[in-house]
Amino acid sequence: MKPTVVVGMSGGVDSSAAAWLLKEQGYQVIGVTMQIWQDESEDVVSENGGCCGLSAVEDARRVASVIGIPYYVMNFKDDFRKYVMDYFVKEYIAGRTPNPCIACNRYVKWEALLRRSMEIGADYIATGHYARVCRMDNGRYALKQSATAAKDQTYALYNLTQHQLSHTLMPVGDYTKDQIRAVAEAAGLPVAHKPDSQEICFVPDNDYASFIEGYGAKVPPEGNFVSTDGRILGRHKGITHYTIGQRKGLGIAFGEPMFVTEIRPDTNEVVLGRSNEVFSQRLVCRNLNWMAIEEPKEEITVRAKIRYNHQGALCHVKVQPDGSAVCEFPEPVRAVTPGQAVVFYDGEYVIGGGTIE
Length: 357
Description:
This protein is 26% helix and 29% strand. The protein has eight helices and 17 strands. The strands form four sheets. It has a six-stranded antiparallel β-barrel. Strand 10 and strand 11 (269-273) form a beta hairpin. The termini are far apart. 45% of the residues are buried.
């Protein structure tokens, strides 16, 4: 008998197809939807949909019924609030721009779900991510980019541990999105043509600043826009409204495009500069996770992505005695943003990555 795998089912086409593919391959498949939405009001949860809402549960349950697998809803609200929402708010207030999906993947979808799955006797967990798990010649587990560059999701998964990767299946990584929709349609899955959710699931209107205010946190007040040489240019609405590289929505006109180049929580200032001032050749990152290789003792040359939709750029990485890493880019890169991840690649394989400091 093939091993047992718990598939995290969000009610979308990708995770639904993942469950069907694994069942076809002979695995003992159990479907699980992770209940992470905080609001108890059914109307609110249903409205917000995404991978958290009641509609997700209903869709996943219908899919599980069609495939013929057991299906459960597991409560991960506390983990989600602690590792994702609290973190998201804290980072924005500190003047950084977090990536909550990376935190959710590492601490909720993997750590919490894997622990719960193994407690009930499963051997693996699986998701509908566009990525592939492989074992390197050196014995380490790593992520390989998906068959379709347009949907590749390895960037948001760079900090999974060796233990997590060794118990993870990602069957969707070998397909394009169109192929996955075709698989779902051929299997008669009711979500074959369901649109993808785009926003951060707990901020459905993309208004981060309002979410942070409503979260009960002490929100930074209005302050000064300043130039890179220290001149006061005007007033900003509060640092939680801005991110590095932002041009629109500044609420102030200069007669030429101006961009956010730095956020200074200590002085409550937002620094604005011209487009050439948004580029840099160096960054420092911390909280490193090494995947395809052990921590390198010497400088390594990689392709580094500094945001999800960044193509990647040539980069020299040197780990420092304190565990951080200095990354030097021969060609300047645009909008290096503290709080975001920098992820290192060797060809199609994830070498590792860290949080931009």
